[in-house]
Amino acid sequence: MSRGSIGVTPRPTRLADESYLEFITSFRRLAIQEMFPKVAEHGEVALAKALETGNVQKPDDGEVLSLSEIRKVFGQNPVTPTFQRFVRTQQEMMWRRTRESFYQDVDTVMVEMEEAEAAHPERIHIDPDFVEPEYTRREIHCQPGGYTDDPMGGVVFHYGTKVFYEGFNDQDELHIELAEKATKPADGKVDHVLDIGCSIGQATTVLKDLYPQAEVWGLDVGKPLIRYAHARAVSHGKEVHFKQSLAEDSGYPDDHFDMVLSYILFHEVPVAKMKEIIAETFRILRPGGTFSIYEFPSNDKNQVSASHRFLIDYDSKNNCEPYSPGFVASDFRGIIEAAGFEVEEGPLLTNPFLQSLVARKPA
Amino acid sequence: MDAQEPTDVPATLGDEIGGAGKAYFDDVVIDNILDALLELSAAVWTYHDRVNVLETVLAEKGIEVSDAIEAHLPDDAEIARREAERAALVQRVFGSFVRRPTARPNTINPTAFTGDDQ
Fold it and tell me: How far apart are CA A102 and CA A327, in angstroms?
């Protein structure tokens, strides 16, 4: 028996699953919001003392303190591995139970996606010959099968990220903010909009609400995500196109889009691919068009605190974010500018961890 | 939509969380105890939540069950069913001790994979 949904979010198939996953949500909130600040404060103080006493060598001007030194100092606090254990374990518990719960209803979920595709085949674009490159087939965030290899990955991702966002995105609040803060072109013309790395299309559908006259597309490499995004959009009555494709080889014409949005995409690809995606976005954006980017912080000017560098390093190794260290170390803004964009700071988000940039293609 | 083949449904977990698991302490028993603590806490809450819901539903129907619960004695079939559920709980709570029984296991992806070398 279906237990319905929680507004726009699917409800786990059994009460026991929902209770278990709500417990994890509460526990995660404690670990991230209360435990990590203590680990960070203790580590920052210990690091300052170590630099003062010379136990840790001060980096030369313009140089960045090595991660191994940060790891060593932070690791001296026994609460640090406790935090690491807790965060890893709750993530594993979350994926196991989310997947187990929604697989109880696998036939229904698969049929819903098939029916949506039969009803609106013109809005889902999947090339049967497309092959996901190996670099995309990572179990990002430890999600079993990643974005590409679990046909139920869409609904599992949806509820899994509900837990990840600690209950603050149950009704797409975060994605509504992203879409509302996306910067329009100076001339105001918005006929074509693209959400790259759109996952299950939460921001994509809001962009359609904001620009109802525009043709809005969501693009992602993960077929399970695209299929779920399409079914969700159809069930919500949103006329949005979804396409399985590589962001670095999108297949759109030159100068096509007025606005492009990306949300935490670039730290999930290798730096070489990031450069290709930025070049491709420059190609498909029309002169005067805008590219709104919300992303992990960059540390090219040593602007990220030691505790956040510690957290990103941990997250990379323990939450399957293989590419994030390369991203954080890169000169992200410089790479965007080198592609031809004019770059400025974008509107700040409620989540202060993320950077916000607006890249304009010169008119 | 373009034509595509139906997709098979994999039954197994991925390598990231389906393997030997990670350890964060030199003494792996601490990892196991903390895992157990989390599973146990989740189980306690799950059952507590169910009893909350049960009592609410019954109260809505005007049924008082507290005395009947205390007086209830199970038959053989119920005993067997409850024993199986209890064993599953024990597995869930203490499974880490089986998963990482002795020495610290190898970690998954011991070196960061940047992908830039592709």
Answer: 33
Residues of A whose CB is below 8 A from B49: 15, 19, 22
The answer to whether A269 contacts chain B (CB < 8 Å) is: yes
Closest residue, chain A, to B109 (C-alpha)? A317
- Give the separation between CA A276 and CA A250, rounded to whole angstroms: 11
- Distance (Å) of CA A60 to CA A46, A55, A215: 20, 15, 51
The sheet that has A355-360: what strands, in order across it? A124-125, A241-244, A215-220, A192-196, A257-263, A285-295, A355-360, A342-345
Residue B101 is predicted with a pLDDT of 60
Alpha helix positions (H), A67-152: 67-75, 79-103, 106-119
Asked casually if ipTM beats, i.e. exceeds, 0.85, the reply is: no
Q: For residue range A70-85, list pLDDT tens digits in order.
A: 999 999 888 899 999 9
pLDDT at residue B114 above 60? no
* CA dist., res. A28 & res. B49, Å (int): 18
Instruction: Give the integer Cα–Cα distance in Å for B12 and A144.
Output: 8
Distance, CA of A192 to CA of A108 (rounded, Å) = 33
Q: pTM of the predicted model, to two decimals? A: 0.88
